[in-house]
Amino acid sequence: MKVHDDFISTSVPGDAVIMDFEKTFLQCLLGASEIQVLRGGDGRYLSITNTEENSTLWFRYGVPGSSIPDVPDA
C-alpha cells in the first residue's frame, strides 16, 4: 500500500482536538511501515503501524462494540 504525499485532507481548520487527531492519523497512514490483516475475537481487523511515529491505526470489520484482540488498553 502506498499513500502519496499529496493525499488530500480538509483544509478548513476545526476544533484543536479534531485537528490533532487528523494530523496523527495522516502521519501514521503516510509513514506506514507495517500493514496486517488479522482475524480473531469478534471479527476481522486491519492494523496499520508507523514505527517511526510510534502509532497504530486499527480498523474493525465485525460486530459493533466488539473487542480488538492484542490492543493495549488506553
Could you characterize what this model shows?
The protein has one helix spanning 16-30; strands at 34-40, 43-50, 55-62. It starts with 15 loop residues before the first helix and ends in a 12-residue tail after the last strand. It is of the alpha+beta class and 74 residues long. The chain contains one helix and three strands; from the N terminus they run αβββ. β1 (34-40) and β2 form a beta hairpin.
Main features:
74 residues, alpha+beta, three-stranded antiparallel sheet, 3 strands, 20% helix
Residue-averaged pLDDT: 76
Counting DSSP E segments of at least 2 residues, the number of strands comes to 3
Find the structural class using helix and strand composition. Answer: alpha+beta
Order of strands across the main sheet? 1-2-3
Radius of gyration, Cα only, in angstroms? 14 Å
Helix content: 10-25%
Number of helices: 1
Secondary structure layout:
Elements: H1 16-30, E1 34-40, E2 43-50, E3 55-62
Antiparallel strand pairs: 1-2, 2-3
Offer a concise description of the structure.
The chain is α+β, with helices and mostly antiparallel strands. 20% of the residues lie in helices and 31% in strands.
